[in-house]
HP0268 domain-containing protein
Amino acid sequence: MELKAVRTELNAKPKTISLEKIEKEIEKEGQKIFYFDRENSHKDLMEMVEYFESKGLSVYFKEVRYGLDENDYLYEAHILS
């Protein structure tokens, strides 16, 4: 599964990140916070949470609003082993 990482600039296109790459980062560091773009479907993000929870990891997932506009939000996932 490919997810879109958060944009670093407003007009930039979001880069993609695979579950395998996320998993490798967590194995290397033990825990990691990932930020995902609003273009991801909520369903895909919930599948990602379920995937890591099924592997025995703890996942804290939330929507972060950073402005007053309806589209000023991103998703944060803190994954711990």
Q: What stands out?
A: The chain has one domain: 2-80. The chain has a mean pLDDT of 94. Residues 2-80 form one domain. The helical segments are 19-29, 42-54.
